[in-house]
């Protein structure tokens, strides 16, 4: 049955289904009524009442690991072989040739319009920040953040390689990040200088009062365990600000005892983990004319058993690291459930798409209580099977109490940017 049209409030929506964990309940699903009163969720009755017939309601979603600056460059700079190294080289060339301010701004805005239509309320994006790109992309991001204020809350983290952390240029990048209220970020990989690089990185973060966010062990090499070094450094330094680590693919291939001991250390350090299953599925274990055996998803069930905060996010979007994607967290939810076997489990996985990412990034926590912002996603599904079986293309997105126009931007808008080299 089609979802009803939601009129402007006040309106009472009755017989909605919601995951119990989002209401602080042990029940897998529960039924609630909501009143939309102005820009907030109200309490009590309204003159207009709609029977929602069990449609699922969720707070608007949070996407805590994206790359808005890379988005939509695939048509002009595809990945030649689909591998991680191929993606690195393709992006490096595109950045040097194309990433002027207006190019970055146009692609960012296109992606944000997709996220808005799909029901996302907050995003953390990583920005490639090796000089001179940091001086281009960060001011553009600050302008876009201001333009989108009140619709999508935006954060940015710088993205540099760990060998950059001990250079004077990195301190200047860190100053830009701090001046624009960003997050300090870095890619780690095994090398003899990693302990010194981590010390320099955390010293820069502490001096500027910055949260940190790492790309970690995005490889199936079982010898790559920079995650352990990060966790131990956080413990040894007593670093108190939030630390996020993403990818962690090598945990899936290293010896079990080493992987689990590393996770014990991650739990002790209080790290937030973000898994990017769609991008990792795309890149990892890719070889010409060979079916992939290992799919790259990190050990989310083992993390959950240790009380580690786990989130899932979309990562790349139509760029050389991932040829697909539409800034749609419901797609991420559906695919993560299938890839990671999040079903048939007692774990409250809905928190990993709604609550955990908001807490990890410091965004406003989600709520369906009276007085909370009336920012909702309503799907034509009464159960997990119905929710995860379809893309929910007919979902209703409500922002500030009003159903928004969900028309997605047309790809042809980007055609002027897509001439090939």
Automatic annotation (TrEMBL):
Give the Enzyme Commission number: 3.5.4.1
Query: What are the residue boundaries of the Amidohydrolase domain, all occurrences included?
Result: 195-396
Q: Name one GO molecular function term.
A: cytosine deaminase activity
Keywords, in A-Z order? Hydrolase, Metal-binding
Respond yes or no to whether keyword Hydrolase is given for this record: yes
Superkingdom of this protein's organism: Bacteria
Note whether Metal-binding occurs among the keywords. Answer: yes
**InterPro entries linked:** Amidohydro_3 (IPR013108), Metal-dep_hydrolase_composite (IPR011059), Metal_Hydrolase (IPR032466), Metallo-hydrolase_Enzymes (IPR052349)
Bilayer-crossing residues are none
Q: Which GO terms describe its biological process?
A: cytosine catabolic process
Protein name, as recorded: Cytosine deaminase
């Amino acid at each position: 049955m089609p979802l009803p049209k939601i009129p402007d409030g006040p309106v009472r929506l009755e017989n909605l289904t919601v995951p119990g964990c989002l209401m602080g309940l042990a029940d897998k699903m529960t039924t609630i009524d909501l009143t939309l009163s102005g820009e907030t969720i109200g309490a009590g009755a309204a003159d207009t009442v709609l029977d929602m017939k069990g449609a699922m309601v969720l707070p608007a979603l949070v996407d805590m690991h994206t790359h808005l600056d890379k988005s939509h460059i695939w048509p002009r700079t595809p990945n030649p072989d689909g591998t991680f190294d191929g993606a690195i080289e393709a992006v490096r060339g595109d950045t040097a040739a194309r990433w002027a301010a207006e190019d970055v701004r146009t692609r960012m805005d296109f992606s944000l319009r997709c996220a808005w239509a799909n029901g996302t309320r907050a995003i953390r994006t990583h920005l490639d920040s090796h000089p001179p790109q940091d001086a281009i992309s960060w001011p553009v991001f600050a302008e876009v953040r201001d333009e989108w204020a009140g619709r999508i809350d935006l954060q940015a983290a710088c993205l540099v390689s760990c060998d950059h952390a001990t250079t004077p240029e990195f301190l200047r990048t860190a100053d830009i990040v701090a001046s624009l209220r960003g997050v300090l970020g870095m890619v780690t990989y095994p090398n003899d200088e990693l302990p010194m690089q981590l010390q320099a990185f955390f010293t820069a973060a502490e001096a500027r009062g910055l949260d940190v966010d790492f790309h970690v062990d995005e490889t199936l090499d079982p010898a790559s365990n920079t995650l352990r070094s990060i966790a131990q450094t956080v413990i040894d330094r007593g670093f108190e600000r939030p630390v996020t680590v993403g990818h962690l693919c090598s945990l899936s291939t290293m010896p079990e005892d080493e992987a689990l001991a590393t996770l014990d250390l991650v739990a002790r350090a209080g790290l937030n983990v973000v898994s990017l299953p769609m991008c990792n599925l795309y890149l990892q274990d890719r070889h010409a004319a060979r079916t992939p055996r290992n799919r790259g998803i990190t050990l989310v069930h083992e993390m959950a058993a240790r009380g580690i905060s786990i989130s899932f996010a979309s990562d790349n979007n139509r760029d050389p690291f991932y040829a697909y994607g539409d800034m749609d967290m419901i797609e991420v939810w559906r695919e993560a459930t299938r890839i990671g076997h999040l079903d048939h489990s007692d774990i409250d996985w809905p928190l990993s798409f709604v609550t955990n990412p908001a807490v990890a990034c410091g965004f406003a926590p989600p709520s369906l209580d009276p007085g909370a912002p009336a920012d909702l996603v309503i799907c034509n599904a009464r159960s997990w099977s119905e929710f995860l079986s379809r893309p929910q293309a007919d979902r209703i997105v409500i922002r500030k109490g009003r159903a928004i126009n969900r028309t997605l931007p047309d790809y042809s808008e980007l055609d002027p940017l897509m001439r090939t080299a």
